[in-house]
């Protein structure tokens, strides 16, 4: 019933014209209607029909315009599709110079750097200083989270060395010179560097956790990039960009992993003042306060070596001297 009433409402003008035509025709046949009445009714009927035709044409033009606008909108979206697909290309493999370029891009505008790897040598030498420079320029906060090997576990450091020596491509590869104690000194240097930078930039927040597992992989997360790499820039790196869900998933994974690692209380590091060029005594006092005392066999020469590692801001990949 509702459909019938709706149809009548839409076509009421046509029904009126039809009714008038039928009534006049009947009266004309019966000889009741005058010639003038028939003529007037005919004119009225033709007027109604003209109005109906005009309205139908206007509706058709309106529908045609609507369809045309929809087609134009669809064309614009199709034109944008390649760029949208490029933005949403979540996973790709890069290496060499391209990898270095993407890493530099990620360091340029991030407010965080979350790392899970071994010694953190590259983060210490390149990533942390560059991210800090950008943060200072923008006077903004910077969050650094590092999950590295536990320097208190010399056996772990030695397992890490053996693992990578077994994967070396040749007997004279850089890994052949690595030692467990050298790896431990790299770890100490990363901690020292983080503490030193934290004392010099109030908006820097550093968290460090010590892992008990040696891995061949390294994971790094900035605000808009995720990197999964193996040793050195010559190995393909997996880069994830433009996919918020994937980045959130990795952020959750790295957060959970860090919470299961042995945590270093970085607040204690602020209680021991470090000079612009830290001395061996200052560094010893710092590590004692952190609860990360050096082995008893370490002399001032060993501490000086660690200090040199901590503040040598040279890309370790240039000479393949270390990996983090």
User: How does the helix and strand content classify structurally?
Assistant: alpha+beta
H/E element string?
HHHEHEHEHHEEEEHEHH
Please give the radius of gyration in angstroms.
Answer: 38 Å
The strand order across the widest sheet is 1-7-6-5-2-3-4-8
How many beta-strand segments? 8
Average pLDDT, rounded to a whole number, is 82
What's the CATH architecture of the largest domain?
A: 2-Layer Sandwich
Count structural domains: 2
Beginning-to-end CA distance, first to last residue: 78 Å
Main beta-sheet annotation: 8 strands, mixed
> Can you identify the CATH class of the largest domain?
Alpha Beta
**Low-pLDDT residue intervals, each spanning 5 or more residues:** 80-87, 319-323
CATH topology of the largest domain: Endonuclease, Chain A
Strand portion, in percent? 5-15%
Tertiary shape: elongated
- CATH homology superfamily of the largest domain: Endonuclease Chain A
Number of helices: 10
Binned, the helix content reads: 55-70%
Explain this structure.
This protein has 324 residues and is an alpha+beta fold. It has two domains: 2-71; 94-318, 2-Layer Sandwich (Endonuclease, Chain A). 57% of the residues lie in helices and 13% in strands. The chain has ten helices and eight strands. It has helices at 2-10, 12-30, 35-87, 96-108, 121-138, 154-166, 180-200, 244-260, 280-290, 300-310, and strands spanning 91-94, 112-116, 142-149, 204-211, 218-221, 225-229, 237-241, 262-264. Mean pLDDT is 82; it is low at 80-87 and 319-323. Keywords: Membrane, Transmembrane, Transmembrane helix. The chain crosses the membrane at residues 12-31, 37-54.
């Amino acid at each position: 019933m509702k459909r019938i009433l709706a149809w009548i409402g839409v076509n009421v003008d046509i029904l009126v014209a039809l009714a008038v035509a039928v009534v006049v025709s009947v009266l004309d046949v019966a000889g009741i209607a005058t010639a003038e009445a028939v003529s007037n009714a005919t004119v009225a009927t033709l007027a109604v029909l003209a109005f109906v035709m005009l309205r139908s044409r206007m509706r058709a033009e309106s529908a045609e315009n609507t369809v045309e606008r929809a087609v134009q909108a669809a064309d614009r979206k199709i034109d944008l599709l390649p760029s949208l697909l490029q933005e949403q290309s979540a996973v790709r493999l890069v290496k060499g110079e391209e990898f270095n370029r993407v890493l530099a891009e990620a360091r340029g505008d991030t407010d965080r750097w979350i790392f899970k790897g071994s010694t953190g040598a590259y983060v210490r030498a390149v990533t942390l200083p560059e991210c800090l420079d950008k943060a200072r320029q923008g006077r903004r906060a910077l969050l650094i989270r590092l999950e590295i090997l536990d320097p208190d576990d010399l056996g772990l450091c030695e397992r890490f060395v053996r693992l990578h020596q077994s994967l070396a491509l040749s007997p004279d590869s850089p890994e052949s010179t690595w030692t467990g104690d050298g790896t431990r000194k790299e770890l100490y240097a990363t901690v020292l560097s983080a503490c030193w930078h934290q004392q010099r930039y109030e908006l820097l927040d550093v968290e460090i956790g010590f892992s008990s597992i040696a891995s061949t992989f390294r994971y790094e997360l900035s605000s808009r990039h995720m990197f999964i790499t193996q040793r050195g820039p010559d190995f393909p790196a997996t880069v994830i960009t433009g996919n918020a869900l994937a980045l959130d998933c990795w952020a959750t994974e790295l957060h959970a992993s860090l919470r299961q690692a042995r945590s270093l209380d970085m607040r204690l590091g602020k209680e021991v003042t470090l000079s612009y060029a830290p001395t061996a005594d200052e560094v010893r006092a710092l590590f004692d306060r952190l609860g990360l005392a050096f082995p008893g066999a370490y002399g001032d020469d060993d501490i000086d070596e660690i200090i040199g590692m901590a503040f040598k801001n040279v890309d370790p990949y240039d000479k393949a001297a270390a990996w983090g």
